[in-house]
Amino acid sequence: MLVMTYSDARANFSSLLNRVKTEGAAIIRRADGSSFRITVENEEKIIAF
Q1: Residue 28 to residues 22, 43, 45, 47, 49: CA-CA distances in angstroms?
Q2: Which of 9, 10, 11, 27 is the most buried (most CB within 10 A)?
Q3: What is the helix (H) or strand (E) element at residue 17, kind and residue range?
Q4: In angstroms, rounded to a whole number, what is the distance separating the alpha carbons of residues 31 and 40?
């Protein structure tokens, strides 16, 4: 699974989303040690407002 710092994720957000789409998930770590998981949402479940 891809693990990136917040700064790297922000600087390369488009490529991050492309990799998450193919690999399924990524972890973003902040300087304070907290981490967040980004996953792909099923496009059929998304409702546009």
Answers
A1: 17, 22, 24, 26, 28
A2: 9
A3: helix 13-23
A4: 24
Separation of alpha carbons 22 and 6, rounded Å = 20
36-44: which pairs have CB atoms within 8 A and are 24 or more residues apart? Answer: none
- How long a stretch of residues is the chain? 49
Q: Please state, in angstroms and rounded to a whole number, the distance separating the CA atoms of residues 5 and 20.
A: 15
Render pLDDT for 3-42 as a digit per residue (tens, 0 to 9).
999 999 999 999 999 999 999 999 999 999 999 999 998 7
The structure's pTM equals 0.78
